[in-house]
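Technical annex, item 7. During the second reporting period the consortium partners agreed on a shared format for inverse folding records so that results from different sites could be compared directly. Each record opens with the tokenized structure and is followed by the designed sequence. A conforming record, contributed by the partner at site C, is shown below for reference.
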């Protein structure tokens, strides 16, 4: 962990996580949605890593919309959607040698393996393309889908059929086999394609990855056919029979079935051999003829992979060891201030465009006012205390996918007449005071909903994918409607049609709208009058209340009326309703405080009530784990477990719908006590709680 993170106060960490969540979400949309990222891979990774490090130090501050829980972006319009039978996940990242050792250490710990126990890994290049899932039934290719958001991707079957590396038929495979891998374009083919594009007066691609993505995601498959795409197979999804016992064996099997697999895939006995192979691949990187951005390590034994399982978006049994960031110097042409949904003023560097590792960069984050001055949020110097001024030569740092950062300043090139940057004390959008609370790194506009920037950002959040997700009403349209005075708050969306008489007639005359899109929009709005409680709560954009917290809170209260009544009863932040709220697992006092304040704040509440008047809010119900004998039960583990570690036991119990608690109380349903159980077993006996040994527990959950 870097020292800067060690010095963060809790408030600073919270602010930093909030900013990271927003920045990374924007970057994701730009990266996955539009095939033209304005940020680099390395910078994106760097921000994600900072996010993970802050979360590691302040686990209780982890946001519900934490970037560590998210992969990719939703499918673009135009392709039909495919729900993946097995989710397409992302990989955790390692950057330094220590991270690789830690990866190995975490796995050993989870599996309860000693340091000396043999444990093998595969190591292979991480291809910088886009992932694709190919479904074969009885040997025939029946479907090809992009990753999308990991759960739902785009159906690109016709396009995939045009790729030479993808066989239309395979022989000797299991009846059902989903082959997963990376579509990419070689350097040579990329250069030639760009030459053809330029000659034809068409747009050239920034890098091979964008070219591959742009070529695969063509609505007209004949265009894909004209583009030289390739495919490496490295993983699989749904299967009717296992391919092998090991990762390496499975890759060999895929190769026998006719897929291209990467020749630099090897087996390693532990971190040292993994690092050696990393160095070998890095040395060959420039001459491979295609882009790679790191090395992927995977536990070789598939039975162990199965036991290790997944965190929410990444497998525990694999990680991507990324290559270091790339750097470039350019001139800082200006500093703009962006105002976010919660009023945060974020400085953005406007740069003279510069190519960093194949991507043109013209914006970079400057984090906050202290960062510009040359200090971290604790007051310690960064960049040797050099401030950043408009007109400076700055070094832009790009690591991985997205948002670049200004890493350094060349003082020898500073113009003689330059002046230190003065951070605004008022909101550039609405003129309200911008205030920095003690201990907060971020200055915030105090204008609330009178601030157009906050209002627009709130509206954008409201219509976003995890919120109301109104088809045809994205960030761009919301901005247009807001500017024209058609909508000022979420409730206005639901009166658009009636306020504009024959809404279609008016809307279709506007630029960018036709009769069909206008009709579709009004229908899409109608469709969202019925909304799930958790979505409604998330869509309100209340500070600290992210997607998964909204879920937990919705499940706890069940209905909108009960939720609103509970918030009113908890308004003074004490008493039983307040205790009940902060008693929800995953809801802390800060989030709870922000939530009850939003409901108590007169203007905000009136706006919420106006919205809810237009809606039918569906009650929240728990997921169906009805087949599970432990669904809804509270389980406590104590003593030592012999067949699995505590972490594995907990993850398994939770998958079956049980709640795992740390201490025994009257609310405990089952105590699982291994050898050495002490006071918890005693207390459970006193309370008459059912107590099982490890085998008894395994028998109960049907895994003995
Ligand atoms: S394994 C469950 N192996 O990296 C994990 N992924 O950051 C399955 N990628 O979405 C992925 N080369 O698009 C794996 N040799 C490789 C890879 C690789 C590139 C991509 C893939 C994945 C992303 C995760």
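Designed sequence (site C submission):
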């Amino acid at each position: 962990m870097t020292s800067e993170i060690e010095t963060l106060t809790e408030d600073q960490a919270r602010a930093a996580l909030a900013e990271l969540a927003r920045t990374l979400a924007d970057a994701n949309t730009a990266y996955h949605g539009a095939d033209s990222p304005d940020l680099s891979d390395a910078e994106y990774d760097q921000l994600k890593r900072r996010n993970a490090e802050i979360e590691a130090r302040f686990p209780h501050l982890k946001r519900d919309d934490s970037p560590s829980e998210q992969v990719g972006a939703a499918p673009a319009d135009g392709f039909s959607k495919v729900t993946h039978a097995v989710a397409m996940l992302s990989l955790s990242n390692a950057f330094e040698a220590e991270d690789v050792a830690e990866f190995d250490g975490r796995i050993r710990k989870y599996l309860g393996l000693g340091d000396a126990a043999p444990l093998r890994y595969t190591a292979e290049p991480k291809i910088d393309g886009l992932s694709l899932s190919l479904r074969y039934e009885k040997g025939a290719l029946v479907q090809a889908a992009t990753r999308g958001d990991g759960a739902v991707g785009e159906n690109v079957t016709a396009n995939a059929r045009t790729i030479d590396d993808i066989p239309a038929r395979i022989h000797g495979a299991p009846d059902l086999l989903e082959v997963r891998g990376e579509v990419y374009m070689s350097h040579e083919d990329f250069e030639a394609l760009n030459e053809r594009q330029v000659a034809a007066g068409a747009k050239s691609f920034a890098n091979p990855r964008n070219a591959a993505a742009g070529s695969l995601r063509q609505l007209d498959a004949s265009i894909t056919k004209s583009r030289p795409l390739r495919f490496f197979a490295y993983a699989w999804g749904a299967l009717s029979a296992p391919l092998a016992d090991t990762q390496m064996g499975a890759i060999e099997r895929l190769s026998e079935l006719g897929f291209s697999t990467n020749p630099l895939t090897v087996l390693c006995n532990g971190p040292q051999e993994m690092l050696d192979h990393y160095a070998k691949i890095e040395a060959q990187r420039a001459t491979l003829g295609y882009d790679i951005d790191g090395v992927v390590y995977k536990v070789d034994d598939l039975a162990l992979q199965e036991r290790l399982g997944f965190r929410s978006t990444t497998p525990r049994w694999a990680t991507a060891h990324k290559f270091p960031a790339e750097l470039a110097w350019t001139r800082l042409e200006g500093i703009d201030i962006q105002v976010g949904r919660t009023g945060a003023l974020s400085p953005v560097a406007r740069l003279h465009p510069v190519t960093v590792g194949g991507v043109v960069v013209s914006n970079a984050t400057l984090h906050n006012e202290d960062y510009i001055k040359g200090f971290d949020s604790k007051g310690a110097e960064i960049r040797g205390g050099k401030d950043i001024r408009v007109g400076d030569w700055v070094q832009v740092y790009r690591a991985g996918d997205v948002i670049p950062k200004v890493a350094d300043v060349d003082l020898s090139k500073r113009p003689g007449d330059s002046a230190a940057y003065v951070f605004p004390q008022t909101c550039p959008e609405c003129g309200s005071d911008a205030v920095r609370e003690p201990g907060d790194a971020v200055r915030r506009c105090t204008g609330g909903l009178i601030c157009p920037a906050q209002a627009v950002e709130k509206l954008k959040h409201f219509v976003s994918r995890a919120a109301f997700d109104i088809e045809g009403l994205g960030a761009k349209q919301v901005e247009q409607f807001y500017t024209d005075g058609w909508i000022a708050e979420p409730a206005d969306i639901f009166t658009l049609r009636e306020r504009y008489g024959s809404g279609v007639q008016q809307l279709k005359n506007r630029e960018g709208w036709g009769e069909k899109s206008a009709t579709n929009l009004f229908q899409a709005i109608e469709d969202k009058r019925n909304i799930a409680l958790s979505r409604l709560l998330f869509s309100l954009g209340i500070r600290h209340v992210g997607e998964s917290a909204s879920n937990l809170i919705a499940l706890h209260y069940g209905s909108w009326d009960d939720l609103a009544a509970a918030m009113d009863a908890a308004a003074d932040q004490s008493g039983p309703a307040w205790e009940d709220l902060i008693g929800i697992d995953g809801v802390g006092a800060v989030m709870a405080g922000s939530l009850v304040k939003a409901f108590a704040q007169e203007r905000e509440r009136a706006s919420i009530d106006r919205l809810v008047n237009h809606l039918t809010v569906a009650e929240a119900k728990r997921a169906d784990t009805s087949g599970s004998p432990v669904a809804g039960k509270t389980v406590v583990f104590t003593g030592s477990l012999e067949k699995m570690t505590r972490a594995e036991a907990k993850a398994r119990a939770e998958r079956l719908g049980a709640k795992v608690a740390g201490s025994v109380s009257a609310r405990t349903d089952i105590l699982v006590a291994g050898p050495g159980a002490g006071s918890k077993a005693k207390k459970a006996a006193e309370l008459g709680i059912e107590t099982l040994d490890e085998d008894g527990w395994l028998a109960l959950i049907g895994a003995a």
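The chain is about 35% helix and 20% strand. The pocket of 2-(butylsulfanyl)adenosine is lined by residues 89-91, 124, 126-127, 131, 147, 182, 234-235, 296, 315, 318, 320 (CB under 6 Å). All partners now use this format for quarterly exchanges.
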